[in-house]
Design a protein that fits this description.
mainly beta, Methylamine Dehydrogenase, Chain H, globular
């Protein structure tokens, strides 16, 4: 799991969105997942944010000991891109969990530098920098064109995790605040007039418990969509944890058992997949053995990709849902390392995906980031 996934999991846990894990036996699949490149010595960058708009345009970002690290896939290899001034060879703490791109000439990163968030735009040859906030947090983005970019974030909360919504929209020159019905903890942009989000309502964001809703942007306004109530399992309520939008009348939500407030017994394994058809939710899949890590992506056909983590064996797996079944495949590793993966991203127009991962040594050594790919 990347640090972006770990950060979001921790924050969601404090808000009642606990990310837990545990998977069954791995199963082979073809085509397969593979490690494309490892980013280790000498700087050991921690790659955190991932975005793609096509087979020849993918980006990832993160940080090393002193700089923002940006790399671009040009269709054949991952190439470094020099970060802007103020984000290289600095003593500041730099992270970048959020990235978005509509093409090689319009890519956005939202790094934090010593807890201040920025919007950085790469136009193919030069950087433009926007200082956004020193108090609020960026959680996601949707990049559609040079004049249509969204920033989804949250203001400070009351101790339950994320606070009230903080959403900005860029029109090509300025950022303007947008009102939304809830805090967009998880965002899935399908198109400029079709954005899905998931999070606590504005009225309950600082309450315990929070009421989690789906939200949809139709190009003109935001709509809130209530989620079905699921019967608790072993005393643990279910919480929506990830959303995938595939059209105005098609969205998937993943739900998992919540942690008990204040600690106590860990949540049991469990997974619900819900589908929205434009008018109602359908309970598509219940699995009582699957434990969860926060990923949900299309497989380019009619299925889904998730990731899983076995808390006993400490093994990560890629999990494919198709034909009503879950199939598990071990995350590729290297000798002497334990592998993890997350941040799944479908390459538009294909059945291939990118994923960020990490390789943690079983003995002395440093953790190394890697990039994985499914398909060609």
């Amino acid at each position: 799991m990347s640090l972006r996934t770990a950060l979001r999991a921790g924050a969601l846990a404090s808000a009642g969105f606990l990310m837990v894990a545990g998977v069954g036996p791995a199963a082979a699949s073809s085509p397969s997942w593979r490690i494309v490149q490892v980013f280790g010595a000498p700087d050991f960058p921690n790659m955190q944010g991932l975005a793609t708009s096509g087979a020849a345009n993918a980006w990832m970002a993160g940080g090393d000991a002193s700089s923002l690290v940006v790399k671009r896939w040009d269709g054949s290899q991952w190439q470094p891109v020099t970060p802007p001034s103020g984000f290289a060879n600095t003593t500041a703490s730099i992270n970048c969990f959020v990235a978005g791109t509509s093409g090689p000439g319009n890519t956005w990163f939202f790094p934090s530098r010593d807890s201040t968030y920025y919007g950085l735009r790469w136009d193919g040859s030069a950087w433009t920098k926007f200082r956004l906030s020193s108090t609020n947090q960026v959680l996601g983005t949707a990049v559609f064109s040079r004049t249509n970019v969204w920033e989804f974030g949250a203001k400070p909360g009351s101790g339950l995790g994320f606070g009230p919504a903080w959403v900005l929209r860029f029109n090509g020159s300025t950022w303007r605040q947008v009102s939304v019905p809830g805090t967009p903890v998880n965002v899935s942009p399908a198109a400029a007039s079709d954005i899905w989000a998931l999070g606590p309502t504005a009225a309950t964001v600082n309450n315990n418990p929070q009421v989690i809703i789906a939200m949809h942007w139709n190009g003109r306004s935001w709509r809130s969509i209530s989620l079905p109530r699921l019967t608790p399992v072993s005393g643990h309520a279910w919480v929506p944890a990830a959303i995938l939008g595939q059209g105005p009348a098609s969205a998937w939500v993943e739900e998992i058992p919540a942690a008990n407030p204040g600690g106590g017994s860990p949540p049991p394994p469990g997974l619900w997949l819900l589908h929205w058809n434009g008018s109602a939710w359908t309970k598509v899949l219940h699995d009582g053995t699957h434990n969860y890590s926060p990923d949900l992506a299309s497989d380019g056909n009619s299925g889904l990709w998730l990731t899983g983590f076995n808390s006993t064996t400490l093994a990560y797996s890629f999990v494919h849902f198709a034909g009503g079944l879950l199939t598990r495949t071990a995350v590729p590793s290297q000798a002497g390392f334990v592998a993890s993966a997350g941040d799944l991203s479908l390459i538009p127009g294909t059945i291939s995906l990118w994923a960020l991962g990490s390789l943690t040594p079983t003995g002395p050594g440093s953790t190394e980031s890697d990039i994985l790919k499914f398909g060609n």
